[in-house]
Design a protein that fits this description.
By secondary structure, this protein is of the alpha/beta class. The protein has ten helices and 16 strands. The protein has two domains: 123 residues, Four Helix Bundle (Hemerythrin (Met), subunit A), CATH 1.20.120; 189 residues, 3-Layer(aba) Sandwich (Rossmann fold), CATH 3.40.50.10470. The structure holds 5-S-methyl-1-O-phosphono-5-thio-D-ribulose.
């Protein structure tokens, strides 16, 4: 079914992170950016899981969209319910920290069970995956609108990792706020932190911001404090992978350090995230599972060795920023004022 259906449009920057085409999923391979802008076809749910694990598709909202398409594909391709259950388990455990992934899988499963005996089941699952995709794009736009007023009319914003169009099915979260403010005429400079170990800030944020015509300057992560101390930063804005009930935020490793620096220098610290990133099953940040990734991400850059081959590496991919370090959380629905809110 669905051979002629395609879904997923190119954004204003003329790229798309993911789309459904010819009964397959096509993604922009983010591991190749900024050197190559290459789209690859994923033919089954296993290839989608592999793409999520290898960060060919990444960013919490986009992982959720990819997972929804993976469940739709698994339903079409698995021969029985046992195979489907194995597939769902593989999809759900592809990456543990971004709650958007399990949120999307659980939403797909409700439809799977409701229509498990219906001839319509697979079409309904594909429709739902497309809805999740569209919903994400709409949430991105609303986040941008809800947050743009927080940015200065003329000034400088710091961001971390990539919380842009590349991380979502739409225009981004933190970067959507920057795009909306920019389009409304605000004169903004953006400092993008490189984001060690695998440089989402340098490879992805610098790429998409320059492509959109923003005034972006790249810095290494360890320069952030110096810039704040010089009074060069008006506010920091980042994304999130999971937000606990008490508004503790899991985001890319290094976010916590930036939040402490921001507090020390009296710089507002904003988090932008869709409602699908909130987890009402975790009371606080200590309950959020932090993904541990391969030490080779730190020991090597591609095939180039940057540390002794056998040195022990500790490589948590995310950290927790406690709510008391946050000024506000910008969502698609509202602005949540937190402990550091100063009006
Ligand atoms: O490991 P990644 O690249 O998936 O990490 C991404 C981040 O930490 C983003 O800041 C977060 O997912 C928010 S993206 C809108």
């Amino acid at each position: 079914m669905g051979n002629n259906i395609s879904h997923g449009t190119f954004n204003t920057m003329n790229f798309t992170t993911i789309r459904w085409v010819d009964n397959e999923v096509e993604i922009l391979d983010q591991t190749l950016l900024p050197t190559l802008e290459k789209y690859v076809r994923l033919h089954n749910y296993r290839e989608i899981v592999a793409a999520i694990k290898s960060l060919q598709v990444r960013g919490a909202p986009l992982i959720g969209v990819a997972a929804a398409y993976a469940v739709a594909m698994a339903a079409m391709q698995c021969r029985n319910k046992v195979e489907f259950a194995v597939a769902v388990n593989d999809i759900k455990s592809a990456r543990p920290t971004a709650v958007n992934l399990s949120w999307a899988v659980e939403r797909m499963l409700i439809t799977y069970h409701a229509f498990s005996e219906s001839p319509d089941r697979n079409r309904r699952l594909l429709d739902l995956a497309m809805q999740i995709h569209d919903q994400d794009a709409r949430m991105c736009d609303r986040i941008g609108i809800n947050g743009m007023g927080l940015l200065p009319a003329i000034g400088t914003v710091m961001t971390y990792c990539n919380a842009g169009a590349l991380a979502t099915g739409g225009s981004g979260t933190a970067l959507s706020v920057i795009y909306q403010a920019f389009r409304s005429g605000k004169k903004l400079g953006v400092y993008a932190c490189e984001t060690r170990p695998i440089l989402q800030g340098a490879r992805l944020t610098a790429w998409e911001l320059s492509r959109e015509g923003l005034d972006v300057t790249l810095i290494t992560d360890n320069m952030a404090g110096y810039l704040m101390a010089q009074g060069m930063i008006n506010c920091v804005i980042v994304g999130a992978d999971r937000i606990a009930i008490n508004y503790d935020v899991a985001n890319k490793i290094g976010t916590y350090s930036l939040a402490i620096l921001a507090k020390e220098h009296n710089v507002p610290f904003y988090v932008a995230a869709p409602t699908t990133t909130f987890d009402n099953r975790v009371a606080s940040g200590v309950d959020i599972e932090i993904e541990q990734r391969s030490g080779d991400e730190v020991r090597r850059w591609g095939s180039y060795r940057t540390a002794p081959e056998t040195v022990r590496v500790y490589n948590p991919a995310f950290d927790i920023t406690p709510n008391h370090l946050i000024s506000a959380i910008i969502t698609d629905r509202e602005l949540i004022k937190c402990a550091r809110w100063s009006g």
